[in-house]
Amino acid sequence: MPRAELADTALRKLFDAAKLAFERAYAPYSRFSVGAAILSEDGRIYAAPNVENAAYPAGTCAEAGAISAMIGGGSRRIAELVVVGAGEGLCTPCGACRQRIREFAGPECPIHIAGPEGIRASFTLSTLLPYSFGPENLGGGA
Ligand code: THU
């Protein structure tokens, strides 16, 4: 299989995982379902939906859930990420989730924003969160 086709297949698999999570979202309050899927650097896929709560601030974003699944699953680095959300606008990660992703991804990490029909736009982490603060900024002061 040619390289580009292989990359397409891997991305399709990641999209499918994010879409399945999207379909399983628990979002009775906002009625805005989101699914996120992470491809870790060690080649595994971790996915999660948003999970809302009657006490609204206790709800969690899909990206946060996928990161928890990744850490709980034993992986540490994000190679690529797909976020699926419906609606006309792009479902780009919220500010807090950009920072959560930043903890475990490099500046060139691709972040693909999709609708249920497929990928709509692709960014890198550094375009979504420029001049970010991360573990290195603590400079051993932790
Ligand atoms: N949400 C996510 O899960 N990820 C995003 O990237 C944007 C927003 C969730 C939070 C809340 O459950 C719903 O979408 C509406 O904001």
Summarize the structure.
The protein is of the alpha+beta class.
Sum up the structure in keywords:
single chain, 142 residues, alpha+beta, five-stranded mixed beta sheet, 4 helices, 23% strand, binds tetrahydrodeoxyuridine
Describe this structure in words.
This protein is of the alpha+beta class and 142 residues long. It is 32% helix and 23% strand. It contains four helices and five strands, in the order αββαβαββα. A five-stranded mixed β-sheet has the order 2-1-3-4-5, with helices on both faces. A hairpin with a 4-residue loop joins strand 1 and strand 2. The chain is globular. It starts with a helix and ends in a 14-residue tail after the last helix. 37% of the residues are buried. The model has no long low-confidence stretch (mean pLDDT 95). Bound molecules: tetrahydrodeoxyuridine.
Number of strands: 5
Spell out the helices and strands N to C: HEEHEHEEH
Largest sheet: 5 strands, mixed
Helix content: 25-40%
Oligomer: single chain
Which residues form runs of ≥5 with pLDDT under 50?
none
Radius of gyration: 15 Å
Q: Strand arrangement, largest sheet?
A: 2-1-3-4-5
What is the terminal-to-terminal distance?
A: 46 Å
